[in-house]
Amino acid sequence: MGVEMGVGLWTFQSTVTRPHQLPCLYRDFPAVARKVEQLGYAHLWLAEHRLWYDAFCPAPLLPIASAAAATTTLRLGTAMVLLPQHDPERLRSLAAAVDDAARGRLELGVGLGHRDAEFDALGLPRTGRGRRMDAGLDVLDREPRDRRPDAVWGGGMARAALERIGRHGMSALLPQTLDAEGIRRAVATITGAARAAGREPGRIGMIKDTWVDVDGEAARSWFLPRLRRHYTEEAGAWWVLDGGHGFTSPERLQGQVDRTATSAVVGSPDEVAARFGQIADAGVDTIVARVNFDFVSDRELGEQLELLAATVLKAVTA
Fold this sequence. Notes:
The chain is built from 11 helices and 12 strands. It is of the alpha/beta class. Helix 2 (61-70) links the parallel strand 2 (43-46) and strand 3.
């Protein structure tokens, strides 16, 4: 199959279902990164949000810098830094410094952001995020070319977002709800925009909610109900669905949760490897298995990382 495989998403949250002392989460992260590297994964990904009750990490480049000092080959990525919420010059400088500390192993994913509360708190209009994104990418484009333009990643599924990725020669982290045909169309759109701009298209990645168990049915019965509860809270509280917020649009909320749960890759090692193979055949060369959730205990997470590495990782990267 020959794809790269990493894991995510580390967010440094303390929730009711998985309470933590916040300083300990950051203190222990370099050891987590070292274990992920030792297990053979190619990369580890973090996410960014702010202003939520669980202290979701607002500055993922800082723990990435600490993890870089504890590892030697593991690439460390953001999925995503919310670029329109940042001063792009400052972000460019910080990312360059972290990349230097990581010896070229930073994968900088940047996204639009979608939560009104975050933009409001920063005094920024959410409606202007597209323009701020384009301006920020122009700043990041000024980074020397020897810093690998494909190490900057963008997300999204709208045509404008995919064309933006192509124009800037970025790599793409596609939404996990895309099926094989949707992946192919997205790749074609990105490639066409890159060629039109005189750029080489970057890599094609996808984050997939993932859970593996030697008993595939046991994996589905344990993981999927918990995943549905997770996205009901997240989508209901955070996402804007066709002009209305999730909890005020229950039918749309249920539809979004259904699509997300259906797209998860859950089952036995053979089943999960086969699903990843289908994704790779559609044009994805980088798979990020999301196994870190607030409903997964530290013990369960460690066991999942080990089982996934011993079975699926070997199959998909062979």
